[in-house]
Design a protein that fits this description.
The protein is built from 17 helices and 17 strands. The chain starts with 13 loop residues before the first helix and ends with a helix. The chain has 2 domains: 14-210, 3-Layer(aba) Sandwich (Rossmann fold), CATH 3.40.50; 231-465, Ribokinase (UDP-N-acetylmuramoyl-L-alanine:D-glutamate ligase), CATH 3.40.1190. It is α/β, with parallel strands linked by helices and 467 residues long. The chain is elongated and about 80 Å long. β1 (55-59), α3 (63-77) and β2 (82-86) form a beta-alpha-beta unit. It has helices spanning 14-26, 31-50, 63-77, 93-101, 133-144, 182-185, 187-193, 240-252, 281-287, 306-317, 327-332, 336-341, 353-359, 366-377, 412-427, 432-446, 452-464, and strands at 55-59, 82-86, 106-108, 117-121, 148-152, 173-177, 195-199, 209-211, 231-235, 257-262, 273-277, 293-298, 322-324, 347-349, 380-383, 388-391, 397-400. Helices cover 40% and strands 16% of the residues. Bound molecules: ligand LZDS7PUF and potassium ion (K). (6S)-NADPHX binds at residues 63-67, 124-130, 153, 242, 301, 352, 414. Residues 209-466 form the YjeF C-terminal domain. Homotetramer.
Length: 467
């Protein structure tokens, strides 16, 4: 798996990181020691590429710069040709100690010349505003003319807590110190960070937010049967192809039994997919009285007319765990939080950015607005994108940022909705992250230019990789 983001790693905001660091100091670890560990972690990664090449280390005015001086010294001790380009003069505390320990060549940042390897130690979690034009232009120039660029903790010019673009250049590698930050996995920060390497430098980092990990996926219990593995009912609508993709995806995502409820029996498709006639909302409501249903999926290809709305209301009024996708989200709109909060059964929403913004307002990064939406609606929110944020009502969150770019093709959202239905049926709300992992892994296995149908075929292969 081309792992750009390490899996299952805690994600901490700048403030939480500083608190974790402070706790370390209180526990007796000196800041110099932490800075040495940080610098050693970055130097180790830089060495993989830097052998025999000239190195330019950018040292900023704070502790990110302090780390940079450690990196410079360690690389020079290994015999590399290292120059430091420094922004500002005397530092404070540990950063000043490290500056004084550096006895190699130092130039002022504005006099820096490009070298083969660039180490970016200008700014890390202290990034508080857009890079000035001169620093941004110089940074982009030096990165562009390097053969390999590596960022200390974060690329300079990335918003730590929201991944905002504050002038960052695109680095080849970023070494995340102590924990991931939202800036590594969201928006412009995900792009600027390049390949992210997690460096555990001995700072205990508890968090209710993590990067996505491969799900535990035990085979069904020996005594399981199609109902105990979960019956998923997918509601068909105006565009039956979308709901059929969702239904087939649920079948391959581990559900024990999948029903498709619609007006017209499909003339093709897997025989294992059971069709139930539901010519209108009333007949759908009757079908939904079946207590064997473990999860309901509505939205893919549903339509937005009065009949579609009536079907959606029947699904919302049912007591079943429910996945709402596509047209159902558009019809819910701003009423989502209020309408869903009353539901007792588990509810999962799978909006893309446009659908999300029609349902939930709020400023702040994708992570914070999605967590707030989950809290207000009482639903699990799967806020899709190259950086998919999954948030639960109790505050937990997971970010998936390894998805294949080839997922940008019609029908992959329908496939994800079906996978969420299967995982909801098999393992409840906590199993939803597994659907996103399977979807992303199946896309990697499907290779370039796949169609949504090919994606479904890879889901069992991805499942097979889970322990
Ligand atoms: N977390 C850990 O386990 C460890 C982290 N370390 C490293 O420390 C940095 C964070 O260091 P900090 O000193 O808090 O901040 P920075 O070095 O990122 O930034 C330094 C100062 O720069 C100023 N600033 C912010 N944005 C800009 C800008 N756009 N242009 C110019 N200057 C800017 C800001 O000061 P102001 O007073 O001007 O706001 C910053 O304080 C972390 O990333 C790690 O690399 C430890 O060394 C090891 C353990
Ligand atoms: K940096």
């Amino acid at each position: 798996m081309t792992q750009r983001i390490p899996s299952g790693v805690p994600i901490l905001t700048a403030e939480a990181m500083r608190a974790a660091e402070q706790a370390c100091f209180v526990a007796g670890v000196a800041q110099d020691e932490l800075m040495e560990r940080a610098g050693a972690a970055v130097a180790r990664e830089a060495l993989r590429f830097a052998k025999g090449r000239a190195v330019l280390v950018l040292a900023g005015p704070g502790n990110n710069g302090g780390d940079a001086y450690v990196v410079a010294r360690l690389l020079a001790e290994r015999g590399l040709d290292v120059t430091v380009a420094a922004l500002g003069g005397e530092r404070k505390g540990a950063a000043e100690t490290m500056r004084q320990r550096w006895d190699g060549p130092t130039v002022a940042l504005q006099d820096a010349e490009p070298r083969a390897v660039l180490v970016d130690g200008l700014f890390g979690t202290g990034m508080s505003r857009t890079l000035s034009d001169d620093v941004r232009e110089l940074l982009h120039y030096l990165v562009k003319h390097s053969e390999f660029s590596i960022a200390i903790d974060l690329p300079s010019g990335v918003g730590t807590d929201d991944g905002a673009d504050l002038g960052a250049a695109h680095m080849d590698v970023t070494v995340a110190l102590g924990a991931l930050k939202p800036g590594h996995v969201l928006g412009a920060g995900l792009i600027a960070s390049g390949h992210v390497i997690y460096a555990d430098i001995g700072i205990p980092c508890a968090s209710d937010c993590h990067s996505i990990a491969q799900p535990e996926q035990a085979a069904p219990a020996r005594d399981s049967h199609k109902y105990s593995r979960g019956l998923v009912l997918v509601v068909e609508g105006a565009m039956p192809g979308a709901s059929r993709l969702a239904a087939r995806s649920a079948l391959h995502g581990g559900a024990g039994y999948v029903m498709l409820a619609g007006a017209n029996q499909p003339d093709r498709g897997p025989d294992a997919l059971v069709f139930r006639k539901a010519a209108n909302a009333d007949s759908l409501a009757t079908l939904l009285e079946d207590e064997r249903i473990a999860a309901l999926v509505i939205g893919p290809g549903l339509g937005r007319d009065a009949e579609s709305r009536a079907r959606m209301e029947a699904a919302l009024d049912s007591e079943h765990p429910l996945v709402l996708d596509g047209d159902a989200l558009t019809m819910l709109g701003e009423a989502a939080a209020e309408r869903l909060y009353r539901r007792k059964a588990a509810t999962v929403l799978t909006p893309h950015a446009g659908e999300f913004s029609r349902m939930f307002s709020g400023d702040g990064g994708k992570l914070s607005v999605t967590r707030e939406a989950a809290r207000r609606s009482g639903a699990v929110i799967v806020h899709k994108g190259p950086d998919t944020v999954i948030a639960w009502p109790d505050g937990r969150a997971v970010v998936a940022a390894n998805g294949s770019r080839w997922l940008s093709t019609a029908g992959t959202g329908d496939v994800l909705a079906g996978l969420c239905g299967a995982r909801l049926a098999v393992g409840g709300m906590d199993a939803i992250a597994g659907a996103i992992w399977l979807h992303g892994r199946a896309a990697q296995l499907a290779g370039p230019a796949f169609a949504a149908d090919d994606l479904i075929a890879q889901v069992p292969v991805a499942l097979g990789e889970c322990r």
